[in-house]
Amino acid sequence: MNFVHDNRRSVVVGIGLILLGFIWWLNLWWLLPPGALIAGGVAAYIQRRALRTSEAVQVGLWGVGLGLLLLVDFLFPGILFLAGVSLLIRGREVGIDAQIQHSISSLRRPRQNTPPASSTSVPITIHSGAAPQAPVTSPDHAATGETTRLRE
């Protein structure tokens, strides 16, 4: 049996199985329809983006939008909002696609390691004419003196 290992497909199937196991274990079956719509919207956007950008943005909007509306239980009024947004972005899909791609690339880009804030260091110099230091005592024999009150 010749089985070709497709790394990306294996990763997607593996993550899907893990998520299905968590849904089963925690009894979260109500997450399946919204999750399927969101995943379908993202997959359709990625698939259609190469040839038809405007269609990809509209399909992604409706897939992800309907999934989120199902998730927050705001389906019927939300469809009106989605329809309005869909009409408003018509003709601007290329710009929206560019913004989406910029957001994705900024998320994928590793954050640059910023150096920690430098602390102010003051050099300590000891002069030969300085006053002698008191001997350091161990914590068992701490030196105590009388307490002087400033005001009574």
Question: How would you explain this protein's 3D organization?
Answer:
The chain is mainly alpha-helical and about 150 residues long. It is about 55% helix and about 0% strand. It is built from 5 helices and no strands. It has helices at about 5-25, 30-50, 55-70, 75-90, 95-110. Helix 2 runs antiparallel to helix 3 (about 55-70), helix 3 packs antiparallel against helix 4 (about 75-90) and helix 3 packs across helix 5. It is elongated. About 5% of the residues are buried.
Which helices and strands occur, and which strands form pairs?
Blueprint: H1 7-26, H2 32-49, H3 53-71, H4 75-88, H5 93-108
In brief, what are we looking at here?
With 152 residues, this protein is mostly helical.
Give the mean pLDDT. Answer: 83
The SS-based structural class is: mainly alpha
Characterize the overall form: elongated
Radius of gyration: 32 Å
The N- to C-terminal Cα distance equals 95 Å
- The helix content, as a percent range, equals 55-70%
Per DSSP, the total helix count is 5
Taking pLDDT < 50 over at least 5 consecutive residues as the criterion, the unreliable ranges are: none
The biggest beta sheet reads: none
Number of strands: 0
- What proportion of the residues form beta strands (DSSP E)? under 5%
List keywords for this structure.
elongated; single chain; mainly alpha
